[in-house]
Amino acid sequence: MEPVLNTPKDIILFDGVCNFCNGYINYVIAYDHRNQFNFAPLQSGTAAVLSEKYKTDFERLNSIIVVRENGFLTQSRAVLYILKNLNVWWSPLINLAYLIPNIIRNWFYTAFAKKRYSLFGRTESCMIPTAEVRSRFLT
Fold first, then answer.
1. Rounded CA gap, 43 and 81, in Å?
2. Digit-coded pLDDT (tens) for 101-136
3. Any alpha helices (H) in 1-139, and if so which ranges?
4. 22 near 29, Cβ under 8 Å?
5. Radius of gyration of the chain from Cα atoms?
6. What's the predicted TM-score (pTM) here?
7. 21, 26, 42, 80: which sits with the fewest CB atoms below 10 Å from its CB?
8. 36 touches 10 (CB < 8 A)
């Protein structure tokens, strides 16, 4: 339990059986050149430990979650935080998205989250990371 909670990196919890979510995580991995993030499926022991720590059922939130040392972010705040911290040329433009009120951003996030399986499908099990990024995944 301790190593998970003491990692210096932000932990991204994601729906491991969602095809769109897996694609998004692969995108984050490709552009996280500062190696700032670790990853764990919501269906993992790591997510269970963090759910207990924060007294929140992360699986029921139906959201991507970023766990930071001082708490966690969900829905559009989590997505924007991740995108802003990637090493891509357009990352500074993410600040413009913060001008949209959170309630509106989250309405769109929730609407998409409810349709993600019908739009992109789902797998029977969580993704298996490649050997080169396996160390960034927490079980």
1. 22
2. 999 999 999 999 999 999 999 887 666 776 677 778
3. 2-5, 19-31, 45-54, 75-84, 94-97, 102-120
4. no
5. 14
6. 0.88
7. 26
8. yes
Q: How many other C-beta atoms lie within 10 A of the C-beta of residue 79?
A: 19
Residue 21, token pair as written in the block:
């979510």
DSSP SS3 for 91: helix
Residues with Cβ < 8 Å from 43, sequence gap 6 or more? 15, 16, 17, 59, 126
Domain ranges of the chain: 2-125
From the list 61, 47, 44, the residue with the least C-alpha distance to 110 is 61
- Strands 65-68, 71-74: pairing is antiparallel
| CATH no., domain 2-125 | 3.40.30
**pLDDT tens digits for range 8-53:** 899 999 998 899 999 999 999 999 999 999 999 999 999 999 999 9
